[in-house]
Write a structure and sequence with these properties.
It is a single chain. The chain has helices at 11-14, 30-41, 56-68, 85-93, 97-115, 121-148, 164-192, 197-226, 230-252, 272-278, 286-301, 313-322, and strands at residues 255-258, 264-267. By secondary structure, the chain is an all-alpha fold. It has a single domain (58-71, 85-322), classed as Up-down Bundle (Ferritin). The chain has a two-stranded antiparallel ribbon. A hairpin with a 5-residue loop joins strand 1 and strand 2. The longest helix is centred in the middle third of the chain and has 30 residues, at 197-226. The chain is globular. Bound molecules: fe (ii) ion (2 copies).
Length: 334
């Protein structure tokens, strides 16, 4: 049975010194869950003084943050509450499951591929754990898809990246964009009351994990760039600029992708507003949704040591855009 859910991906095959975390086999009790939830959300380094980006102390504490905030949930013990027919239909019809599963599939391979090239053992272990957690997200999604009978397109083969750094940058910055909107949408879904709270609870650790991932990424970028010689640094900044152009291009259009049988799959890479409407019957306007994304972004990062850097591009862009948007009064619940 589990063969359909667990695929052959093994982080340690790509990163030989990686030790996969040991997870408790028994379902946790409430107190254990609460402690894990608190632990993953709040973390402050005991190291004194500033954590100057790029310094050894910054690298060491970034990696320590990632290790110590690990949440040891086991996907196979997650509960999938039975759903009312209307809620089930709403979930099955959300246009996000294919892209969600495939995004995790790509992310784990690209992160592991890049992690294997990182010389610093501490940073390599942190990136490897991140890859492992993406694989766990994929397992969570696979179990949910199976529990609710969601039909998926067959997954295309995942190609090992030729340029691991490029692939890692695309994945990292994509996560910064997607997580920013996902935080807000998740809150819309929660407030709408259209999904059972147990299901929201099941996905909560995944959401917070994405916050940790982009926290790690923002600090990895800062650490990495300060260690480059001036000419490598120029090449790196050009690469980062190309990544942003690529992400913008990817998100402006509807990405057309083929599944493994060559059938065209319509995937909406820009489902933020459509998604907001699918997860709620509240007609939320764009400025309000953007404000909620900002609030949620701040809330999710608020428990981590303020000396660590946060991803800044999306919050800055959205704050800037909001200066030109006037919010119309929200339409009433239909
Ligand atoms: Fe993920
Ligand atoms: Fe992630």
């Amino acid at each position: 049975m589990d063969d359909q859910v667990l695929d052959a991906f093994d982080t340690a095959q790509l990163i030989p010194d990686f030790n996969a975390p040991q997870l408790p086999s028994e379902p946790p009790d409430r107190a254990t869950l609460d402690a894990a939830e608190h632990n993953t959300r709040y973390w402050t380094s005991v190291a004194p003084g500033p954590l100057t980006p790029g310094s050894d102390a910054h690298r060491r504490e970034t990696c320590r943050m990632f290790r110590e905030t690990f949440n040891p949930y086991r996907p196979s013990v997650l509960e999938w509450p039975s759903l009312e027919p209307a809620a089930l239909k709403r979930i099955v019809e959300l246009p996000i499951w294919d892209i969600a599963v495939q995004t995790e599939g790509k992310a784990r391979l690209r992160m592991a591929a890049y992690a294997a090239t990182v010389e610093d053992p501490d940073m390599r272990a942190a990136l490897a754990l991140n890859a492992w957690e993406e694989s766990r997200h994929k397992e969570v999604l696979s179990r949910m898809v199976r529990a609710y009978g969601i039909a998926l397109a067959s997954e295309p083969p995942y190609a090992f990246p030729k340029d691991a750094e490029w692939a890692y940058l695309v994945t990292g910055y994509s996560e910064c964009v997607d997580s920013f909107f996902a935080f807000g949408l998740f809150e819309v879904a929660k407030r709408s009351g259209l999904f059972p709270p147990e299901l929201i609870d099941t996905f909560e650790p995944v959401m917070q994990e994405e916050c940790r991932h982009i926290l790690l990424f923002a600090n990895w970028v800062a650490w990495h760039r300060t260690r480059l010689s001036w000419w490598r640094r120029i090449a790196f900044e050009l690469k980062v600029a190309r990544v942003w152009v690529f992400l913008g291009w990817e998100r402006i259009g509807l990405a057309r992708t083929m599944d493994a049988e060559g059938n065209e799959q319509q995937q909406d890479n820009n489902f933020t507003v459509n998604g907001a409407q699918s997860v709620s019957d509240v007609d939320i306007n764009v400025p309000d949704l953007m404000r909620l994304c900002l609030e949620e972004n701040d809330r999710r990062f608020s428990g981590y040591d303020t000396r660590l850097l946060r991803p800044e591009t999306m919050p800055k862009l959205v704050r800037f855009a909001l200066r030109f948007m006037r919010s119309k009064p929200s339409a009433q619940t239909s």
